Amino acid sequence: MRTCFIMLLTENEAHTPRYSFATECMLLLAQIIPPTAIVPYADDINAKKRGCKLSISRSAIPLHLSYVVTDIFTQGATFKKDEPFLLHFGAERWKAANIRVPITRQVSMDDVHLLAPLGEGMSREKALDRLGKALTPKPAFVREMTHRAAQEAALLSSPMYKDMVDQCRAQDADMRQRGQLPRHASSVQAAWGASARAVYACPMCKESLDGAETEGPTPAQRGAAQRSTKKRGARKNNEGLDARTRRAHAGLERRVLAPGAKVVSAFVHEPLSEGEAASWLTVMDTGCASRRMRRSRLDAVLVSFPHEVQVVLTRKSMQILADQNGWLEDDIMTAGLWMLQVGIPLKPL
Amino acid sequence: MCTPSIDVIRTSTPGGLALFNLVQKLWDHNRQPADVEEILDVINSRVCSPDDIDRLLRLCPRAVVLRNVVKLSLSMYLAKNHASQLGVRFTHWRCADVGIEGAAKRQLSPECIRLLDGQDCSKTQNLDAFLAFFPGCRYSFATSEMPEIGWCNNGLCTGVRLLLHPDEPADDVGKSFRRLEKQPVGIVVRLEDADIGDMLMDERVPSGCVPVKQKSVRFQVRGPLGACCALASSCC
């Protein structure tokens, strides 16, 4: 039994048999539940001949156990408090993403559980050297982040953003004074639940949503809504918006998603202070929503700030924004900056 | 069909603030050597003691690793832990592999099978060699057959029922686990994010569940298996 688990863990360490702290932990696990599985080991066959192909026909059920996942799987996930995750970094294949992603999926430091120390089995100097190299970003990445930071700084200094923060705080204080809880994510999620038709709306054109159909309107109603949209669009152009903003929103998609469209929600539960607002995008990683949207073929992302700011981003709109603003399509900031720039409240239909 | 909401780090708690600071350091581009040392120390301060592991095992933890080689075996181990915590019987089996080189189909030699079992499932057409079942077992899909209901790669689901092969020998109830001789016909799973109701109208499939049936794939493995290939050819 013990041999079995030593093999299990040493495979991670470049096939070098070694009795480590992690092995010790796993032996403790093994005493609780006796293993019965056949643990495979590949390094006992001295395969000198390479380049030969073996054709196999395999019959199995296309499921695999999801108890252990790789860091790639955890991108876009948030670990729940009642489902603890053990992290094991091993001693090789350290990259910036490998280190950052599993740690930043947690909500609190108390939820981070390492099975073995980072740099286990190597000297401290070597571990520091390798960690430093792994975390050193590439020049292109630094350029991109600098560009984002400049945009973010410009945004935070804008009066529109400050007004929005003040407004949110005032509303929050008012609701607390009246003994009401701030609007919670669950209520929003209920409003956008399985039966809801997720409607994308450009916040600048939000009036048009008044006529948008959610339950399959008649053609006459649809025509009236379109006419109404045109009129309001004409009024909107006179509201003093700058030309760039108008251009940015003119091409955005306005459509009703199909019934049952998949929507992923991202919520910020607590009111943001200015410092937090500057860094929430880094921490919360809304970019996971867009990655998830692509991976799971979701149709839209609903991002909800406390109180009034709730925005649905569709795949196409994110692509348009990325093209127009020069951001990456799979960009954290695309959603976040746009929302903050707009700063106009939206309500779910 | 909303997926679970994405939570954020809450800096109002001490743990949240500590993680927030660590994340800021991880993303800091002007990092000094002292900062790297601090990052290492902060991360290593969260290494589990044996008592911690004991406590976490009762909560049926999952794990994140960087290599698929570890993933295969550790996943089976944590699944057993989960089964024992739920107090249900553990069933496991292996897939059926047949070599197709040459004129006639031949059964692989034991050495070849053992070597294949150690392969990453991404190199073996996303089908694991070993699979397990118990009511409540957590699975993720390896195929993308019905993305609209969440049946896509890495989509999560929970095991509900096992559909055994008709020729499967009788169960020995004396054992604490069951090892199947034949590949099961399928596994009935409950999808996490989709509510499909009584779509299937089959009494063997409970409401909200779908049966995942067997699948056969062909693939080629290179590298060290070359020696095994020669071995298999010589044995058969």
Notable characteristics:
heterodimer, A: 349 residues, mainly alpha, three-stranded mixed β-sheet, 14 helices, 8 strands, disordered C terminus, B: 236 residues, 30% helix
**Which two chains touch over the largest interface?**
A-B, 123 and 140 residues
How many strand units of chain B? 11
Instruction: Please give the largest β-sheet of chain A.
Output: 3 strands, mixed
Multimeric status of the protein: heterodimer
List the helices and strands and how they pair.
The complex is a heterodimer of chains A (349) and B (236).
Chain A: H1 2-10, H2 21-32, E1 54-60, E2 63-65, E3 68-70, H3 71-74, E4 85-88, H4 96-104, E5 113-114, H5 124-135, H6 139-156, H7 159-177, H8 185-191, H9 219-236, H10 243-250, E6 263-267, H11 274-284, H12 287-295, E7 300-304, E8 310-314, H13 315-325, H14 332-342
Parallel strand pairs in A: 4-5, 6-7
Antiparallel strand pairs in A: 7-8
Helix pairs in contact in A: 1-2, 6-14
Chain B: H1 14-26, H2 33-44, H3 50-57, E1 62-65, H4 68-86, E2 90-94, E3 96-99, E4 106-107, H5 110-117, E5 130-133, E6 138-141, E7 156-163, E8 177-179, E9 186-191, E10 209-213, E11 215-221, H6 225-235
Helix pairs in contact in B: 5-6
